[in-house]
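Title: [Solved] ABC transporter substrate-binding protein 3D structure

Original question kept below for reference.
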Amino acid sequence: MVTQAPPPTARLRSRFRRTAAVGTAASALLLAGLIVPQAQAAPQDRTAALAPARAADGKDVLTVAVSQSVDSLSPFLASRLLTTSIHRLTYEYLTNYDPKDGRTVPGFATEWKPSADKLTWTYTIRSDSTWSDGKKATAEDAAWTFNKMMADPNAATANGSFTANFAEVTAPDPATLVIRLKKPQATMTALDVPIVPKHIWEKVGDFSTFNNDKQFPIVGNGPFVITDFKVDQYVKLAPNKDFWRGAPKFDELVFKYYKDGDAAVAALQKGEVSFVQGLTPAQADALKSAENIKVNDAPGRRFFALATNPGARSKDGKTFGNGHKALLDPAVRKALFHATDRTTIVDKVFQGHAVEGEGYIPPRFSSYFWKPSAEQKIGYDPAKAAQLLDQAGYRKNASGKRAGKDGKPLDFRILCHATDPNDKAIGKYLQEWWGELGIGLKVECLDNVSDPWLAGDYDLAFDGWSVNPDPDFVLSIHTCAALPATPKDTGATDNFICDKQFDDLYARQAVEYDAAKRTELVKQMESRLYDTGYMNVLAYPNALEAYRTDQIKSITTMPEAAGNIYGQDGYWSWWSAEPASAGEGSGGGSSTGILIGVGAAVALAAAAGVFVAMRRRSTAEDRE
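Solution (posted by the thread starter after getting help):
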């Protein structure tokens, strides 16, 4: 949806920071001191807040406040939402997603066709795409990208699940890409892999360490070009004037890092940034009455979960880490979840700006949304939790503490993001609820949770992924194939889960082209993940974000009805954004409305009887 701004009045691994949101009294008081009503602001502050973000040279700059660090500017390594979103802006994928409803539409490929047995896919590569250094982008670049991922495990770190089933990839001519499969693959119209320029990347040596962050501008063929980057400061991008769909209208796009969410909101009020995501409910409510600021509150594509350490392990059969052995007992995990009140979390922490968690896929993706039956559901029931712990041999001692047969008290640790108020607030609730059961909980809030997580040095952790229309990726991270090769390696796994029943279901859905049958298999996977008790989805938070209407005249949400702006499946928001100064002769070449040639691609897919897969990660979020 292209939202016209009205007058003042919507995933390796730095582990998963979600949308920050907490509504404690302390936060409200802090916010009250931070967000000054416009009527009380000093005249000079008011003037600054109303001034569009324009550079000294008169250029229109769109500045996006972000709270996530860049993991890598290499598309072969990046998994965080911020970085994969930036890669969507700077590299073309074979296909894209219609911002209106998420249908697969042309990207680097203008059309595609499977063979009768669906084991060979032929893509027609567009003739009007060029790399930002002036060289023509061709099918050879796509073939090289996929072949590199197939041949080098380090190049498959981020997106290897997409190419694991590829038998051969060739480019018989500049306009034709041919992918031959080992067996059918349902994601062939949802291959979310950035296509890179062969003439640049073939010079790279070690793909496990090359972060692509030393030489600028970075060559790409998307709507933007990365021009500069400073760790935990900013990423700067310029419009690609030769982008085939048309150049963006802003003269510069900047992702500016803020460790503190209140500081980002203050910057929005002062006009120092154009857009802020990850608002707390208190911040969003206060900003709704602020002049020249529009708040977008949309159903989210993320889940917020509690993850338990199932015993960190690698493909070579070795175990590692120091996860609590009690959590290997399904009864203990189930007891913890029975002692977790999701309703209170939604009402008190998210203040109603979320939906209570159930299955692994958020309700926004209605086709794949699953919920447990009444008999299967692990609802809030402290008495049941106590009974399960008693039966498992963890009874209360004289001091009221649960202890095992060895006499040691049942104490757990939970990894918490230091900058995420959600983690901290929910951690306090868990300490209270589990404490009443006689269980101790230490909330370990760290700036970097990646290191202990990858090392398996945790008991529980706050987890979350942004989910895309096709769920393949967020399902693949729980397969045995996603485990690290050895304890020293980094795998694609989310939480070291390796379950044969889950794996069998994953393999079946991956080759199922019938949409209804695949949907049922995905729901069975969600049911299995729920029953194992390694993941407890607590909530599906709304996307709470805001932008300045005196800087951004219009911007596209995805989906069209009640969609988000930040972290889309595509480049639509920032590519379509129109400066408030557009009438003053701002540069750029795209129209505000988005015109997409969907007819040919949709017709081809329908004629072939192919299930049009609609994709994975937040791009992934990412996980973040």
